[in-house]
Amino acid sequence: MKKKKKTHVPFRMNVLFFVVFLLFSLLILRLGVVQIVFGENYTREVQRTEDVTVNTSVPRGKIFDKNGKAVVDNTPLNAITYTRTQSTTQKEELDVAKKLAKMIDKPDDKVTLREKKDYWMMKFPDLAKKKITDAEWKKYDNQKFSEDELYNLKLDRISDGDLKMLTKNDLEVLAIYREMIGGYNLVPQIIKKEGVTPEEFAVVSEHLKELPGVDITTDWDRYYAFGSTLKSILGNVSRSDQGLPKELADYYVARGYSRNDRVGTSYIEQQYEDVLQGEKAKIKNITDKSGNVTDTQTISKGQRGNDIVLSVDIELQQKVEKIIEDELLAAKKTPGHELLDRAFVTMMDPYTGEILAMAGKQYVKNEKTGKPELRDFSLGNFTTSYAMGSAVKGATVLTGYKTGAIKPGEKIQDETLHIKGTPDKSSWKYMGVINDLTALKQSSNVYMFKTAIKIGGGQYRPNEPLHINMDAFDTMRNSFKQFGLGVRTGIDLPGEQKGYEGWTQAPGLLLDFAIGQFDTYTPLQMAQYVSTIANGGYRMEPHIVKEIRKPVEKSGEMGPVVEEIEPKVLNHLDMKPEWIKRVQEGFREVAQEPGGTAYSAFYGHTVSSHPTDYSPASKTGTAEGLYDGPKRQEFVNAGKEVPMTWNLTLVGYAPSDHPEVAFSVVVPWAYQDDPANPRTNTNIGKKIMDAYFDLKKEREEKGLNKSTSVQKVENIDDVQKGLAEARKENDEGITKKDQQ
Description:
Elements: H1 11-37, H2 39-46, E1 50-56, E2 63-64, E3 70-82, H3 90-101, H4 113-123, H5 125-129, H6 134-141, H7 147-156, H8 160-163, H9 168-180, E4 189-192, H10 198-206, E5 214-224, H11 231-234, H12 249-253, H13 267-271, H14 273-276, E6 281-287, E7 293-300, E8 307-310, H15 314-332, E9 342-348, E10 355-365, E11 372-376, H16 380-383, H17 393-403, E12 412-414, E13 432-434, H18 436-441, H19 445-455, H20 472-483, H21 509-514, H22 523-534, E14 538-540, E15 545-549, E16 561-564, E17 569-572, H23 577-592, H24 599-602, E18 617-626, H25 632-637, E19 644-654, E20 661-671, H26 680-701, H27 709-712, H28 736-739
Parallel strand pairs: 2-8
Antiparallel strand pairs: 1-6, 2-3, 3-4, 3-5, 6-7, 8-15, 9-10, 9-20, 10-11, 12-13, 14-17, 15-16, 18-19, 19-20
């Protein structure tokens, strides 16, 4: 029998088996380490389910005046915030609120009655349960009451005595808690920023580990360097506890805003929200399945908003506001001026439309103290309208030229008009036979009346009815609109009004229209109107923002220009240049020649001894009408007759040959049939022009002179080339020689 051969495993196979054994051993060991030592960490990694990107606000852009002075800035504030996660419970939030209440002082003045009742039920659930009767519980069990109905029953039955159970500490906890739950998950909510003391900031910082979700940071608030100056036009920004305005929330959310973001809510802050808001910082929160934040990553730091440079000269603005205040207070001291409560001034560059100053003051009683005070009402320059009186006569004369009703130099008898069925109409004094220049200079009503009658195709015959074509209203209104009267000026601010058109039911009212006592206009429209005459017939779009610039962090410096607001011609008067020059001469005589209605102010030195060396041109206005101000209803309620009042106005520009500043002054309800008219309009007009040219001279002496507006726009046609061909025939009156 043969012997079996012994099987031999080659040595190399043994080595291979041994290596495999070692590898499996290492793998098992590694699995053990992963599972036992790092199992919890890796489990969390595996359970990561969501990356949540949160945008956090950055400071808004600054607002400067035309000379680089910061008008609106940001003030840094220490702030305490809270960020809740998806998994945070109400109990956890209340625990944090209770701990914070021991560290910070949080006023409870914003806590509502409903919030107190909700908190009372959270703190006293057993007592809240007893507010429901057994019968009502049975209905609830039988699904005859919903959860919400049951809750509302509890709310309704919580008495004042119940609420007295809440201590001062409870209310402070509630004040903190309401801020904590006011926003979205993973979005920081500001618990406190106004009045955070260094001690509070330090204590919270030291105990952050005990306060999950709480953090300390630096927030900002708007700082107005010049107090109330221009404040109503600068506008407002929503508070951190307000967030987006309810009526615009959907609009902003659709554009990437969070509901607790702060935004501009009025005027410049609102109009230029896109510019001022800035690029938000972006933070990515990585959460697990339970909603706990496992990691936070900064995607971008963000950048504060771009800066805005206004066309306003803040020094001039302050001077103008002080002049208005002084004149209002002086007028209020004299009898017959009880209804006077406001005055407005707009100053603009007639060649560029830049607003140099826009001031308004309103005399009101403080609701808390009951004492009178003057409040900023700059926005009234474009949000309120009034009958402007004779200041519009420049437009009437030019409309007369255009329609062929009158010719330059034409003489007309100034006499009392006796129109059947209508009260007699006359000028403020008898003037005899006068031409158009004298009519402007001495402010003849009759010259304008007879011009309007001719525009309407009528003829004046003493003691007979007046027959005119009612289409004359449209003719005159359409002509006035070319100057900016009765239409929106196009200013870059929201809420502009265009005024009111009177009801054209009688021919005689056309005569009132011709002297500015029928339709109403805004002070800004008056400034645009006189600018159109001043620059030779170009209606410029007014704008209060001059430039948009990139932000820089260095204090007192402005970044590079992003956008410069170019002058914009809205239309050119369809009138001969020599006609416009004729009215310009009339306006010059009003201010510079004896007998002119503004001569006593500018050259008679009745206002001040300041020499008038800037060659002004102007037109005064006085409009009589029933008082329609804020106290009108008091007269009606008392059964008293609503009194007649007088609006005082003044428009003008200087220098008369090469104007660089145009202005309007409007003083509504200045007095009530008072022969001692204080001439508030001309007083203000003289003083604001003195202020402008004094400031200019002072800066020139310091070497701070800048190019005048006329030099900035050497050929106004270049502003809007598309109009050049259409107005070629009219350019003789605005030649290069005239502008240099």
